[in-house]
Design a protein that fits this description.
The complex is a heterodimer. By secondary structure, chain A is mainly alpha-helical. In chain A, 78% of the residues lie in helices and 0% in strands. In chain A, 48% of the residues are buried. Chain B has a domain of 27 residues. A two-stranded antiparallel ribbon of chain B has the order 1-2. Classes of the chains: A mainly alpha, B mainly alpha. Chain A: Pfam families: AzlC.
Chain lengths: 245, 100
């Protein structure tokens, strides 16, 4: 009986260190380079389209989404109307609906207010890291998620600031291959998902369906809508296949 | 003004599902559907980045990113390290762009 209690005790402690804020910070590290390069690029583009450093920082603080910030900078540069800019940003970030929904079962233990704080800093990358952590688990730790999110957030703000400051001296950031960091990170997150889920055959079918849908949808829709449509179509196919078996 | 508006429309899709859905027990089919979202969305983002250019399939042999994706995928599969994958990816693109 006594041994049993002790065993349980160590189990909880182990789980705690794995679920701590600090562990969340550590688990964020592999994605930092991706955030840095994209944030840096967002800062450079903001600078070249005539935004002030204060405006660029405000965007990173409030919007905190790479694609949206590229679009705002680009459309301000071409004198787009505020309504058109806001609508485009909305469509580009609709993908977060799916991410936030997919994350929700793992934070059932928390109040809506606490979940709001987690959702507010949700990104593709933090979602990817969180879903890898969530494999074979029922819940995710709130502290761990905050560690992950806050690290990414701070890193993003620093990166865009650096981009805004150094933008004037960087002629060709593409030469360094930094723009590929984003694709490489998505590839890494995808592979880690496939390896850890142990549903390889179904997952591969879903991946192939996604690729075909993205290509097809790209001919008629904007890139961001194509991603959303392809995700919905492929996830539905995955659900149906699993039901059959 | 634009920044405030853009931040609100970015925030809503991020927070609404996790706030509302986590309060309810979801039906099994929906849970199963949601379980495929991570794989599907990551695959969609990768395919969009690598294969699409100006709304068309970009399958040319000078697509440096597509070639670089090969060692990047292999690194991910064999090392299962996110940092290593990103590092190899960036390095490959840098070398390829330098050579061609």
């Amino acid at each position: 009986m006594r041994e049993n209690v002790q065993l349980q005790g160590t189990g909880i402690e182990l789980a705690e260190s794995e679920d701590s804020f600090l562990q969340g910070v550590k688990d964020c590290i592999p994605t930092l380079l991706g955030y840095l390069s994209i944030g840096f690029a967002a800062g450079v583009i903001g600078h070249t389209s005539g935004l002030s450093t204060a405006e660029i920082t405000l965007m990173s603080l409030l919007i905190y989404a790479g694609s949206a910030q590229f679009i705002v900078a680009g459309m301000i540069a071409t004198q787009g109307s505020p309504a058109a800019i806001i609508l485009t940003v909305f469509i580009v970030n609709l993908r977060h609906l799916l991410l936030s929904a997919a994350l929700s079962p793992y934070f059932r233990q928390l109040t809506p207010l606490k979940n709001m704080l987690i959702g507010a800093l949700l990104t593709d990358e933090s979602f990817g890291v969180a879903m890898n952590k969530a494999t074979n688990r029922q819940h995710l730790s709130e502290r761990w998620m905050h560690g992950l999110n806050v690290t990414a957030y701070i890193n993003w703000i620093i990166a865009t600031l650096a981009g805004a400051y150094l933008g004037q001296w960087i002629a060709n950031p593409e030469k360094l291959g930094l723009d590929f960091a984003l694709s490489a990170m998505f590839i890494g997150l995808l592979v880690l998902q496939l390896v850890s889920r142990r549903k390889l055959l179904k997952d591969i079918i879903v991946v192939l369906c996604t690729v075909v849908s993205v290509i097809g949808a790209s001919y008629v829709l904007s890139p961001s809508m194509a991603v959303i449509v392809a995700t919905v179509v492929a996830a539905t196919i995955g659900m149906v296949i699993e039901k059959w078996k | 003004m634009i920044i405030i508006g853009a931040s609100i429309v970015t925030l809503i899709p991020r927070v609404l599902p996790i706030m509302v859905l986590s309060r309810k027990a979801l039906p099994e089919w929906l849970m199963r559907w949601l379980s495929y979202i991570p794989v599907a969305v990551m695959a969609a983002l990768v395919a969009e980045e690598l294969l699409i250019s100006d709304g068309k399939l970009a399958f040319q042999s000078n697509n440096v990113e597509l070639w670089a994706a090969l060692p990047t995928f292999l690194t991910a599969i064999f090392t299962k390290s996110l940092l290593g994958t990103v590092g190899v990816g960036i390095l490959t693109v840098m070398v390829l762009r330098f050579l061609f």
